[in-house]
Amino acid sequence: MTSVRTWGKRPGTVVQEAVPFNAEAAAAALADEEITPVDVFYARNHGPIPDVAANDWRLVVDGLVDAELDLSLDRLTSEFAEHEVTATLQCAGNRRDEFVAIRPIPGEDPWGPGATSTARWHGARLADVLASAGVTDADDLHVEFTAPDVAADASPAQAYGSSIPLRKALSREVLLAWRMNDEPLPRLHGGPVRVVVPGFIGARSVKWVHRITVRDSPSDNYFQASAYRLLPADADPGAGAGEGIPLSSIGLNSAILCPADGAVLPPGPVTVSGYALGGDDREIARVDVSADGGATWRPAELSASRGPWAWRFWSFTVDLVDGTVDVVARAWDDRGGLQSESTAALWNPKGYANYSWPRRRIVVGRS
Ligand code: MTE
Fold it and tell me: Which residue lies with its CA nearest to atom 22 of ligand 1?
């Protein structure tokens, strides 16, 4: 598909929308490497992708600050210490396809489990930049990020923006990133500079950020005040600003990437594999897998922890004998929390935050 080539993604990438470009990796490609290669990393865009030359990029820091800043890329990269954080970004619409199977969600892309990926991000700590503007206390304030891309799907159409609480903005993991997996941050992923807010929904990791404003209330931007909010199941999806629960930290989640649902496989051992993410600052402690629809469970193999901000891969071998096999997974975090069981119970009109137990049916077939 042309848009896949244009944006440098791997053949086989699943395009949800060509314009603006919204795409997720084929499940097998995503399952291949724990640090997602840039050409596999999902892309989520609400508007046309800006083309901001590194030399032209400026970042203004204003609002409730002691000293306003106006930084060039040169100043950002030379005056502030560079830090590395390995973090998973996860879109709030990840796994929406499972909600859609229960009840349609018009106007929203039916993302599979690939609207999430993990990269090594390099950049300055947002806390350091805020400190040089005189903001150091985690008061009950908010930090708004604004970008130049104008989103036609906002009502009214407006530049993309969102905000996070100041206490999160001052934490060590939040970066103004200019490198992704040791490459200069690609244009599609927010280059020259984007915000990376580990543990929070991807919508808060604002790309092409050019203004940071400290405020006494959350951003009024459409993507903070109206979208990315959990509405009651019977609500009008077009509910106005301030309705529903604003999404910030990601919930405990896991997904099955291989094999595909409905796969017909010969008898014998098959490896079932996927990812799990604690969400917020929680680490994954265990993933259980059931090969009998949830009647009995065994712990899966987990990859080494990279800390709370990154997913862990898991795998489990099922011995296929005959008939159909219903595989279910469930993740536990390091505080004893268990992933929610029911997809139907989590259904909401915009299809956000599907953190339910993933399921796959495998059909055992003899050729
Ligand atoms: N930033 C801007 N400026 N415009 C956008 O449309 N999309 C957000 C976020 N930052 C968006 C943005 C959403 S919803 C997600 S999930 C992540 O970027 C996706 O980041 P990626 O495209 O690098 O995967």
Answer: 43
